[in-house]
Amino acid sequence: MMIVLFYLLGNTLYGVTNLRDLGILFYATTLGLVFIYILFAFKIKTSIHLMSLGITTGFFFILNLIYNQNLIIVIACSLLLSGILASARLHLKAHTQQEVYLGFLLGFLSPIIVFYFL
Asked: In angstroms, how far is the first alpha carbon of the chain from the final one?
């Protein structure tokens, strides 16, 4: 249900000129969730929390490239928050290191893949 919802939101926002960047964000979230569910079918657990922060980091990375703006502070803060969240997930024993890294990597690559194909 969430994949369909995010995809429809991406379609709607990508069609509006001023909101095209948000459309990329929703498409990236859709792609990230598809990756998560495919891996889940193979019994590979990943961190959705870290995926969301990976998508955030990747999205600001893409915006930095598109608009040639200096968003390095936002990217650094996002990476710092990702590290704090990853530490918390590991401390609570909710995930292993592999699951945390995989979640962040999938999230970070999703906006890059979406930007490349759109």
From this structure: 23
